Q: What sequence folds into this?
């Protein structure tokens, strides 16, 4: 019992010291001149003619993620996952100067690319990089390409 008592005392002392430092952390930081900042004396009352700001007006617009499928900026959609987990994802980027699509996946077995939503120059060589492996992408007669893992673990374009 005496071996655990000093450990318990140390834990209590550390906990007590942390309580003493919390109020100091909550005080406002001094401004550049070294003085403490002036307290906020604004009132939210409309009676004295003070202008109040609408908190909703100062909030940024929420980011919708993932983008809706009908969003004109969305060109990559995960269609099937490898495992039935919620951690599957795919990200994509297009480098117009190199005419290269780069896609990284995690637990994805099939995804689609809408090539009409990307500024691909089909007169040049188009490089498709999926998970670090590059290949040539050729223009098809349809704009939405469905790409899936085959039984050997290679990405293949599915023909309609």
A:
């Amino acid at each position: 019992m005496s071996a655990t008592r000093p450990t318990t005392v140390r834990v209590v002392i550390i906990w007590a010291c942390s309580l003493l430092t919390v109020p100091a952390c909550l005080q406002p930081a001094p401004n550049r001149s070294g003085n403490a900042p002036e307290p906020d004396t604004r009132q939210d009352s409309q009676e004295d003619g003070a202008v109040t700001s609408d908190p909703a007006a100062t909030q940024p617009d929420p980011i919708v993620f993932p983008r809706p499928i009908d969003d004109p900026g969305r060109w990559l959609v995960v269609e099937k996952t490898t495992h039935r987990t919620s951690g599957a994802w795919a990200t994509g980027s297009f480098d117009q100067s190199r005419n290269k699509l780069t896609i990284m996946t995690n637990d994805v077995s099939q995804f689609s690319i809408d090539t009409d939503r990307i500024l691909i120059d089909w007169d040049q060589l188009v490089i498709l990089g999926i998970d670090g492996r590059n290949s040539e992408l050729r223009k098809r007669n349809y704009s939405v390409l469905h790409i899936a893992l085959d039984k050997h673990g290679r990405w293949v374009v599915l023909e309609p």
Observations:
- The helical segments are 4-26, 55-58.
- The beta strands are 76-81, 89-95, 100-106, 108-114, 127-130, 133-136, 144-149, 155-158.
- The chain has a mean pLDDT of 75.
